[in-house]
Write a structure and sequence with these properties.
The complex is a heterodimer of chains A (314) and B (687). With 314 residues, chain A is an alpha+beta fold. Chain A has helices spanning 8-21, 93-103, 166-174, 190-208, 211-230, 234-254, 259-286, 295-302, and strands spanning 25-26, 53-62, 78-87, 113-117, 120-122, 127-136, 139-150, 153-154, 160-165, 183-185, 188-189. Chain A folds into two domains: 8-206, BirA Bifunctional Protein, domain 2, CATH 3.30.930.10; 209-302, Class II aaRS and biotin synthetases, domain 2 (Methane Monooxygenase Hydroxylase, Chain G, domain 1, Up-down Bundle). Chain A is built from eight helices and eleven strands. In chain A, strands 1, 2, 3, 4, 5, 6, 7, 8 and 9 form a nine-stranded mixed sheet that branches. In chain A, strands 10-11 form a two-stranded antiparallel sheet. In chain A, a hairpin with a 2-residue loop joins strand 6 and strand 7 (139-150). The longest helix of chain A is centred in the C-terminal third of the chain and has 28 residues, at 259-286. Chain A is globular and about 65 Å long. In chain B, strand 7 and strand 8 form a beta hairpin. In chain B, strands 1, 2, 3, 7, 8, 9 and 10 form a seven-stranded mixed sheet that branches. Chain B has a three-stranded antiparallel sheet with strand order 4-6-5. Chain B contains 27 helices and 17 strands. The relative contact order of chain B is 0.05. Chain B folds into five domains: 2-62 and 121-205, Alpha-Beta Plaits (2-Layer Sandwich), CATH 3.30.70; 66-116, no CATH class; 212-334, no CATH class; 340-562, Hypothetical protein af1432, CATH 1.10.3210; 572-683, Isoleucyl-tRNA Synthetase, Domain 1 (Orthogonal Bundle), CATH 1.10.730.10. Classes of the chains: A alpha+beta (314), B alpha+beta (687). The interface between A and B is large, with 42 and 44 residues.
Chain lengths: 314, 687
């Protein structure tokens, strides 16, 4: 395998450095509970509309139902994704990705790297994409997606999303039997940091969560999000959508959401996700899509016959 | 004569679309060349995950020159009294882009010959981008960057060479050129193809085998060589192995086969678990000893050469072992939980949000399978096995193994059921209730398994229809069509004469709200549609299928399928036309007067032909008609042909005497009832 075994934080630093050089802006992990890097507003919201956007960030991602009390070698309540989004998708995005593996010391000629078809869909966020999972000597280390639809809206400009599962990648690089044996950095192990929270979060999500409280929160968060959407306050509204999504995941992990209720909750989240996408585009259009510099595209979208042409009298 | 090369460079195309896309590219190119009258001697096709290409051998220098004659107005109408051209003649010339000077006078008309000169190959081939590349259709589409155009994967380069010259055109923002790409890692991004004829060699030198068949046979040889060297048996002939070989072939450009090992201890796992882990999850080929026992080795194919293959082997072994380690954990864990404990959990498992739980579904299936067992005269042993199987047949859904390997549902059920001491019949039925799992998949072999399979599928169809989750168009997310096909194929295979209609009527009555909105006649049509599809697929003529598969009182699928076969079998008999005409004459006339009266009074006969028809009909044993085979019914009825003709020649049915008339209608209805045993013969097209 590799000669020097990068610690998990070395991997993060390397990827950040690499993608910053490729023109991605380094964002910070979003400060709200999310289930995946895609749910961060730096991906979900920015994927809508015609504006270019290049970003990279680490996103701790919570999946209550995957919690295993810190016992399972691979399954985690919370794992870490390294997320890269480039919009519009560059023509050499695959080569850029392969370059990132080289930066990590994974030389393609010393391994077998394949792009295996895998299309991605997140129905509750109205999002779908086409792409591959990347296999490194038989192990899936990255999800590669060209977004086609976000928030139920067909995208104007396609975002290429590259999502590395950091624990998996690190397990491959460090060649350890369980995630808890990974070195985070400076001799401190992943288990030293996360084993206890994994146990506690699992215990909480599966046994101790307060159902009534969570159900009440869901309703309140939804009400707040709807209220904020009506005011065009996209970002606070989106925060409440994320909160309701996380609360639903907690309820679902507990396994007490009844059949019909489950469908109902998912529908409510989806409805909000659709609304927030269209309000986001409206608000960006009002600002004149400041990140869109290309004259031809500005005309295509904002010109008198453009898709987002300013309405008369405004 | 020249050679032309078109190569479409793509990001990795899904493996299952590579071959079909290559075939499509050839078809579209063929159509394109024909439309432009450009002749070529041969079209060679190439495909890898990253490229689709055609090479046209011996392309003509230009398209065929065409001349086409058009007839204009008659000379009489074309010339006025002074011999000048009339408006009609001038109009004709104008319409053809000519002048009257070009007219030729012949056979009393004026004629124009329209000549289209040949167009150079390079001019025609410059259109191949718009007319072939951009027109390709796929089952998966995507857009990329700021394009609105949809394609299977992003187009990254296009090579178009006529001999050594680039044919210039654009596909989206991609300009054609002579630059291709070699192997993703063993070559580099800028490879020039000197001329169209040296495509294969150029790529070969860059570690790409463009010819899909050549690549596949190389993989096959490499795999077989390793197997032979190690004394392992490798079966590449099974359909699953062929599918895997096809898939592997379409994810590599430069294959190098390798073998890997895993610890002996994992061989205690059920074979299906090992095979699924290797084949489905990792795209590995498994190997056996000469007795067919799995060996702790696997074969796989790298997209690259042999350098550093140790890393690849080690990595793949590690991934497989992680999977097997999980599987082994589940295998032991699962055996700690009884079937009853798992069934407790099934009570909470959702069948469909709008329908209810799997447990409720199982209970309904239990009732339905009991009814079926009675109708099929099962003995007590089978009845008991069926009852037990229906109580537990979904328990394995709650096991860790099926949670992790969902394709092993049923298979693990059988395995664990045996471990827990269930009878073989019960265990096998658990596996078989899923069968057939595809349109051509294997059918349940045991009677208990077959009944459970039919009952499970029937309940699924009825409850989904009741919940208005009905397939439409090509959209069948719950596989209801496959389920219906499974019912039809199983009944036919077992030759079980089940009266589906009364069965379903009683079933819906007894199940309550979950089936209350089910439209039974729509469900029966849905199932009959599958019979139609299957018979059409067997090459039976459309009108015969329509005639044979009309609804009956009982809906016995075996009979319906059999009578359709019988009609088809006799289609080419010399007397088929006359027989059908005679029979449909009877049923058409009978259909004009609705009556329940079937009692014929011989004393009311007025001529010999009536007498003859009466006794001929009587000779067909009406009481046992239901148990006669469709072939026997057809033969009996075909024997009536002459008697019927004589009857209609000698007898007027619609007479004034009501009593005589009604008697004759009773006779016709008797025969018409018999005829309807064969279907609706009026649907047969007699030529």
């Amino acid at each position: 395998m590799t000669n020097t075994k990068l610690s998990l934080q070395d991997i993060i630093l390397t990827l950040q450095q690499y993608w910053a050089q490729q023109g991605a802006n380094l964002m910070q992990a979003y400060d709200n509970e999310v289930g995946a890097g895609t749910q961060s507003p730096y991906t979900f919201l920015r994927a809508n509309g015609p504006e270019p956007w290049n970003a990279a960030y680490v996103q701790p991602s919570r999946r209550p139902a995957d919690g295993r009390y810190g016992d399972n070698p691979n399954r985690l309540f919370q794992h870490h994704q390294f997320q890269v989004v480039m919009k519009p998708s560059p023509s050499n995005i695959q080569e850029l990705y392969l370059g990132s593996l080289e930066a990590l010391g994974i030389k393609p000629l010393e391994h077998d790297i394949r792009f295996v078809e895998d299309n991605w869909e997140n129905p509750s966020m109205g999002a779908a994409g086409i792409g591959w999972e990347v296999w490194l000597d038989g192990m899936e280390v990255t999800q590669f997606t060209y977004f086609q639809q976000v928030g139920g809206i067909e995208v104007d400009s396609v975002t290429a999303e590259v999502t590395y599962g950091l624990e998996r990648l690190a397990s491959y690089i460090q060649d350890v039997p369980t995630v808890y044996d990974l070195e985070w950095g400076n001799g401190v192990l992943y288990g030293d940091i996360f084993k206890e929270p994994e146990y506690e979060h699992s215990k909480y999500a599966f046994e101790e969560s307060n159902q009534e409280l969570l159900l009440k929160h869901f309703d309140e968060f939804e009400e707040e999000a709807t209220h904020l959407l009506a005011l065009g306050l996209v970002h606070p509204a989106y925060d409440y959508i994320l909160k309701s999504s996380h609360v639903f995941n907690l309820l679902d992990a507990r396994g007490t959401v009844s059949v019909t209720e489950r469908a109902g909750y998912l529908h409510r989240i989806r409805t909000m996700a659709r609304r927030v996408s269209s309000v986001f585009i409206e608000e960006r259009a009002k600002l004149g899509f400041p990140l869109l510099k290309d004259a031809v595209l500005r005309d295509k979208y904002l010109g008198s016959k453009g898709k987002y042409a300013p309405k008369e009298g405004k | 004569m020249s050679t032309f090369l078109l190569e479409i460079g793509l990001e990795e195309v899904p493996a299952h679309l590579v071959t079909s896309s290559r075939i499509q590219l050839v078809e579209r190119t063929t159509t394109f060349l024909a439309a432009h009258h450009l002749s070529v001697e041969q079209i060679k096709a190439y495909a890898t995950p990253r490229r689709l290409a055609v090479q046209l051998i011996n392309v003509a220098e230009q398209s065929e020159a065409l001349s086409e004659e058009k007839r204009g107005p008659s000379i009489e109408r074309a010339k006025d009294d002074n011999g000048g051209w009339t408006k009609a003649a001038q109009g004709f010339a104008r319409g053809q882009g000519a002048t009257p000077d070009d007219f030729e006078e012949r056979e009393g008309y004026v004629w124009l010959t329209k000549r289209t000169p040949g167009i150079s190959a390079s001019e025609i081939l410059a259109k191949i981008g718009d007319e072939v590349v951009m027109q390709m259709k796929f089952t998966t589409y995507m857009k990329w960057a700021n394009n609105d155009f949809l394609y299977v994967r992003p187009i990254r380069w296009v090579v178009a060479l006529l001999d050594s010259d680039v044919i210039n055109f654009n596909v989206l923002e991609v300009k054609t050129g002579r630059v291709t790409r070699g192997h993703r890692f063993l070559s580099n991004e800028h490879i020039e193809i000197p001329d169209a004829a040296s495509y294969v060699e150029t790529l070969q030198a860059q570690y790409v085998i463009a010819d899909a068949d050549a690549r596949k046979s190389k993989i096959r040889t490499q795999l077989e060589t390793i197997a032979t060297q190690n004394n392992w048996l490798l079966n590449l002939e099974s359909s699953a192995a062929e599918d895997l070989l096809e898939e592997v072939n379409n994810i590599v450009e430069w294959p190098t086969a390798f073998s890997g090992n895993f610890d002996n201890k994992y061989l205690e796992l059920p074979d299906e678990v090992l095979m699924t882990s290797m084949r489905e999850h990792q795209r590995f080929f498994y190997v056996t000893d000469e007795t067919g026992k799995l060996l702790p080795h696997f074969l796989s194919v790298r997209n690259g050469n042999v350098e550093n293959i140790d890393n690849v082997v080690a990595g793949n072994e590690k991934v497989l072992v992680a999977r097997l380690e999980d599987a082994e954990f589940f295998y032991h864990e699962d055996q700690q939980k009884t079937i009853a404990e798992n069934m407790e959990k099934v009570k909470k498992l959702v069948f469909h949000e709008k329908i209810g739980t799997v447990y409720e579904h199982m209970q309904r299936v239990g009732v339905l399978s009991k009814t079926l067992a009675r109708a099929l005269n099962f003995d007590d042993v089978k009845k008991n096995d069926l009852a037990r199987a229906s109580e537990i047949y979904k328990f394995d859904l709650m096991t860790g193994m099926v949670g992790e390997f969902d394709e092993l549902q049923g298979i693990m059920g059988e395995h664990y059921a045996k471990l827990f001491g269930e009878s073989d019949a019960v265990a096998i039925a658990i596996k078989e209730h899923y069968m057939p799992t595809s349109a051509t998949g294997k059918i349940a072999t045991t009677d208990v398994g077959a009944v459970l399979s039919i009952a499970d599928k029937l309940d699924t169809i009825v409850t989904f229809f009741s919940a208005n989750l009905i397939p439409s168009g090509s959209n069948d997310p719950y596989g209801l069509r496959r389920a219906a096909t499974g019912i039809v194929r199983t009944l036919q295979d077992k030759q079980w004469h089940v009266a589906l209609k009364p069965l379903l009527v009683n079933y819906v009555k007894s199940t309550g709200s979950v089936t209350k909105n089910a439209n039974l006649s729509a469900i029966i049509e849905f199932i009959l549609d599958r019979v139609r599809k299957l018979t059409l697929d067997n090459g039976i003529r459309q009108d015969i299928v329509a005639a044979g598969t009309t609804q009956t009182d009982d809906i016995d699928i075996v009979n319906i399928a059999a009578r359709t076969q019988v009609l088809s079998k006799h289609l080419n008999d010399v007397d088929f036309r006359d027989i059908i005409e005679a029979l449909t004459r009877v049923s058409r006339l009978a259909g004009k007067v609705e009556t329940d009266n079937r009692d014929v009074d011989a004393n009311l006969f007025e001529n010999q032909s009536e007498e003859a028809l009466f006794s001929a009909t009587k000779a067909i044993n009406l009481q046992t008609i239901n148990s006669q085979s469709s072939e026997d019914v057809y033969r009996s009825l075909s024997g009536l042909q002459d008697v019927i003709s004589n009857y209609f020649n000698a007898t007027m049915v619609n007479v004034d005497n009501e009593v005589v008339k009604n008697n004759r209608y009773a006779q016709l209805h008797q025969i018409s009832d018999l005829i309807s045993e064969l279907g609706d013969l009026e649907k047969i097209v007699i030529k």
